[in-house]
Amino acid sequence: MGGVRLLGMIYALLFYAATLLLGVGLAMKIRKYARTPAPLKIPLTPAPTSRSGVALRMFREVVFFESLFKSNKWIWAFGWVFHMSMWLVLIRHIRYFTTDVWWWVEIAQPFGTYAGFGMVFGLAGLLARRVSVERIRYISAPSDYLMLLLIIGIGVSGLMMRFVDRVDIITVKSYMLGLMRLQIGDLPADPFLLIHLGLVVILMMIFPISKLLHAPAVFFSPSRNQVDNPREKRHIAAWAARLEK
Amino acid sequence: MADVDTDIPRMSHPLEIPKLACGAMAGLAPFIAKPEHQEPLGFPGELVPDWKEKALEKMAELADKNRAFQVYLDMCVKCGACTDKCHYFLGTGDPKNMPVARQDLLRSVYRRYFTFAGKYFPWLVGARDLTEDVLQEWYSYYHQCSECRRCSVFCPYGIDTAEITMAARDILAHVGIGMKYSNEIIGKVHKIGNNLGLPQKALGATLEDLEEDIEDETGVSVRIPLDEKGADILLVTPSADFFAEPHIDGLLGYAKVFHEAGVSWTVSSYASEAANFGLFIGNYEQMREISLRIRKAAIDLGVKRIVFGECGHAWRVGYSFLNTLAGPFDFLDQNYPIPQHIMEFTWGEIQKGTFKFDKSKNDEYRMTYHDSCNVARGSRMGDQPGGQFELPRNVIKAVCNYYYDMPRETTHESTLCCGGGGGLLTDDLMDLRTKGASPRMTALQQVTEEHGVTHMAAICAICKTQFSKVMPKYGYEMDSIVSVHQLVSNAIILTGQKTEDEAEE
User: Fold this and answer.
1) Of A48, B33, B110, B309, which sits with the fewest C-beta atoms within 10 Å of its C-beta?
2) Across B173-309, where does the E strand assignment appear?
3) Closest CA to A91 of A68, A109, A103, A75
4) Angle at which helices B247-261 and B342-352 pack, to 10 degrees?
């Protein structure tokens, strides 16, 4: 089974454009967050009194979703299963971008394969809540549903390629390796593959202009990343210091 | 018997989630500031003609100057975790009182003018134009938030609704729609030195009366000094402590504690206010100006230490912001925390064994303790995180025999607002205040049923005023809310004080 030249060209352009938008867009946003001063100490207390304590607090939030767990067990369960499954799936996908498969990617392979189901399950749960819980339905905009459907689409098309209608993965891998070396190869005309990659391109493009920004922004949240030491150490923003002159 | 209003929500437990009641609180709004309340603060007297441009300009400026505002505008995923966490939502059922929905009143406008998706696909992401109706809606619902930050505790990203509310109020004030209650009070602080507008002479007379009350009661002369140069400690306390009940009884407690500890202290007429409503209106410059009065008073009086009295948001500003706004305090004694909370002072002395207590004096009180929102989630006491929960409870238990906590999901960092915080302690919002208090009142009723609790202590002037107003609506006497230092005052036996037994002999 071979690939199709024209498809390879189209998807190559899409991928280059998406990568550029994702990279530049994200860099600009992160720069903005990092450069905007926090004029006051506003950690939610009780808060850690040292930097290492803050790192631990952030670790618990990002890895275990600690506050969400305290808040709502259903959202936590669906959200956590989705995110952790997604990491496994992403790790598994590294094999398509390296000539030799790294050992830890090899280890993650079986878990990553089935984590695809976890991802879709978690997302379906979140979607069900968004539709069925009156309060959450009230706060949802069309984009909130579409975002879930987009990622569900990526998950389901991926699972179809793996478990139902297997794609010529050797050709896909050599296409991806080629893209990374600016060599455009052929892409199999597999409908699930084209859907899968097309949705991923959309996801990459909207990442820096959507609520997906929560991923980098969580590290810049002053209520969680500040040290509780205002009496010991004077904190002042540059624009506020100018008021003192 | 206290009057019981039938219009208040009946909850089977403190966090019971109501059915959505769309528009239930629409149109409720506090009185708008008049030009004479706006202009002294540097705000335009009435709605400016180019309000739309000015509002968007201010929004952009705040997003540039405040990382929290910028990040919190961008990062909400609308997961819904916060939707059932606000006491005003629990008490009113109005969906716009769900924290995420409240934030979105402003975020929808931010999206429309500052994001790609909102500019080109407003219908897709729920973006909307800024209109006068939107301004009215902001004014209404951003004054149905007490900036208590309970919701942000439960947000996976710590999105702080208070930051959004403060920004919205600041934007509104800058286009000419300020809040009468807060701005009038700030004007009084600038002019006279305290929220009540109490001049030095009247304050001095009040404090003398209180000194006499203590002497009549105990036979011991305890001083409450005013503007005394060279004193070691400057006490900065909410002006309600000079005038309102049960606040005054707390002030008597501080006086007795300082007296027994043998320290010299003073109140300042220039900085006769711990409260800082600059926080409520979200204006850094106002908050700074009010804070600088404390710095000036400390320098003028030549004190070595600053101690704050019982006031919730004042302690957040004192603990978290004072060093930023009015520091550095290199002229004060560095061996003590700057500033220090009266609870830290009292607990320190209790541990040293300074005081003699007769706990039975408080036996008529079966106590519980209401963690005030700003103390709980925006400050600390002592060396350890969480000291703000332990120290007040330790002090109460040192002077009372009967103490019971309310359900854990309504205390500590999960504490419920009294319903009157964040600049909402005004009669024009009484309906909101009553309904917003219902989760806390329901938690209180639970410990009343289980343990026979009769009284609730708080360390916030706003909580105390709010509860003395709303508790009668929930079947309690208005004096069921007490100051923590009122309990200290009741139990402390001053050196040389005649006990009842001695008096009988």
Assistant:
1) A48
2) 233-236, 265-267, 305-308
3) A109
4) 40
Find the closest chain A residue to B70 by CA distance: A33
Distance from CA of B317 to the nearest CA of A (A): 10
> Nearest-CA neighbor of B33 among B153, B185, B166?
B185
B68 vs A146: CB contact, 8 Å cut-off? no
Q: Please compute the mean of the pLDDT values over residues B120-133 and round it to a whole number.
A: 97
Are the beta carbons of B100 and A139 separated by less than 8 Å?
yes
How many whole angstroms from its chain centre is CA B314? 7
* Tokens at A238, concatenated: 């540059």
* CB-nearest partner of A38 from B67, B285, B380: B67
Q: How far apart are CA B401 and CA B360, in angstroms?
A: 7
Interface of A with B in 30-89 (CB under 8 A): 32-33, 36-42, 44-49, 61, 65, 67-68, 70-72, 75, 79
The answer to whether the bond into B339 is cis (omega within 30° of 0) is yes
CB < 8 Å to A81, chain B: none
pTM equals 0.96
Which phi and psi (to 5°) does residue B455 adopt? Answer: -135, 150
Q: Give yes or no for A243 touching B (CB within 8 A).
A: yes
What are the helix (H) ranges across A36-71? 51-59, 66-71
What secondary structure letter does DSSP report for B2? -
Contact B169, B179 (CB under 8 A): yes
Instruction: Give the integer Cα–Cα distance in Å for A193 and B154.
Output: 39
If you measure CA to CA, which chain A residue comes closest to B98? A135
Distance (Å, whole) CA B426 – CA B441: 19
CA distance B378 to chain A (A): 6
Percent of chain B clearing pLDDT 90 (strictly above): 95
Residues in A touching B153 (Cβ below 8 Å)? 44, 67, 70
pLDDT classification of B359: cutoffs 50, 70, 90? very high
Q: Which residues are within 8 A (CB) of B488 and not within 5 positions of it... i.e. 6 or more apart?
A: B253, B256, B257, B346, B395, B399
Residue with tokens 């005054």: B248
Beta-strand runs (E) in B270-419:
305-308, 340-341, 367-369
Model confidence at B1, in pLDDT bands (50, 70, 90)?
Answer: very low
